[in-house]
Amino acid sequence: MNHGRAVRYTDSGGTEVIELTEHPIPSPGPGQLLVQVKACGLNRADILQRLGYYPAPKGAPADIPGLEFAGRVAECGQGATLFSPGDPIMGIAAGGAMATHILVHEREAIPAPSGMDLTVAAAIPEVFMTAYDALCIQAKMRPGEVVLIHSVGSGVGTAAIQIASAFGATVVGSSRTNSKLERCMAIGLEHPVLAQDGQFLPQLKDMGIKANVILDTVGAAYLQQNIRALTEKGRLVVIGLMGGATGSASLGLLLTKRATIIGSVLRSRPLEEKCTLAQSFAREILPFFECGRFKPVIEKQFPMEQIQEAHALMESNQSFGKIVLEWNEDSTQ
Predict the structure, then answer these.
(1) DSSP state of 221
(2) Which residues make Cβ contacts (< 8 Å) with residue 221, sequence separation at least 6?
(3) Rounded to whole angstroms, what are the CA distances from 242 to 196, 226, 237?
């Protein structure tokens, strides 16, 4: 059996548990593609998995992280006809994307934007698909609505700004860092909110703003404020729990506003749901990349050999947008 390379967590803990190791190259089954991976985005879930807080779902490698990739089709399994060897593609995975080769179902794969470097394309799938699913499919965002995006300088936040703006929403965003808010204004943020001491609601009140849709990565720490910040029939979509998983809020206010709280995660969804999302994304969002309207925001690109440094940068909370890890050509042969 031929071998490539993969990132492996040897245990739960700090960056010292990360190693690069030899990894067997799998063969594609019916309907599958073998992808030679060029690059992958680093996500907060990869950090949490390393720390032991977010284990891989059933069916995904327990010790090889990675939720997104960009690369080229190396081989097509029986009956896989949507792509051909050599085609540039990108996509999400439940895990295992930080390897030189990965198997994906052909309907999960998305064509990489024409002419875009694959290392740049690797910054697209997880954050743009998460934002698209949360705003357009789950919350059913409409033109003219006000959208509040928390952690707006994150990868998902910078993707959500672009999507909300393109779909005709008024974009409000919160961050604990003023410099990130300033950078977000260059990509479509209209109303920046500096969340000081965990408080964003007073600033919204001063601005006279209530939100039709809130995209929340914080969770419990913002729950009560989020409900107060919603309009009647507002929708709160929770996609992260960095501020805690258990909180309290006024159910009476939720009833009065006839508001909706939606929880959403991509990683553990069944294959068919992921395929459906990928096909929808290719139809509705990919054209914005093709015409240059959407661009992934990348803080820094690292060679895969510097993955420990990449983890440290993400954990510092100083990065803006995405961090991308790239395999060198010798690793992927």
Answers:
(1) G
(2) 198, 243, 244, 247
(3) 16, 15, 14
What are the residue boundaries of the structural domains of the chain, listed by start? 3-124+269-332, 127-263
DSSP string computed for 51-87: HTSSPPPTTS-SS---SEEEEEEEEE-TT--S--TT-
What are the backbone angles phi and psi of residue 285, rounded to the nearest 5°? -110, -35
Q: Kindly report, residue by residue over 128-167, the tens digit of the pLDDT.
A: 999 999 999 999 999 999 999 999 999 999 999 999 999 9
* Token pair belonging to 232: 């009647």
CA 261, CA 50: separation in Å to the nearest integer?
29
C-alpha R_g of the chain: 20
How far is residue 294 from each of residues 91, 158, 183, measured CA to CA in Å?
Answer: 17, 10, 16
Handedness of CA 256, 257, 262, 263 (dihedral sign): negative
- DSSP per-residue string spanning 240-306: --TT-S-----HHHHHHHT-EEEE--STTS-HHHHHHHHHHHHHHTHHHHHTTS----EEEEEEGGG
The pLDDT tens digits of the residues spanning 213-242 come to 999 999 999 999 999 999 999 999 999 999
What pLDDT shows up at residue 1? 67
| Parallel, antiparallel or unpaired: strands 170-175 and 230-238 | unpaired
CATH number assigned to the domain covering 127-263: 3.40.50.720
pLDDT, residue 34, reads: 98
List own/partner pairs for 247-256 with CB under 8 A and 24 or more apart. Answer: 247/219, 247/220, 247/221, 247/223, 248/223, 248/224, 249/223, 249/224, 250/224, 253/227, 253/228, 254/227
Please choose, from the candidates 326, 325, 322, the residue with its C-alpha nearest in 3D space to the C-alpha of residue 298. 322
Cβ burial of 111 (10 Å; 0-12, 13-18, 19+) is middle
CATH code linked to domain 3-124+269-332: 3.90.180.10
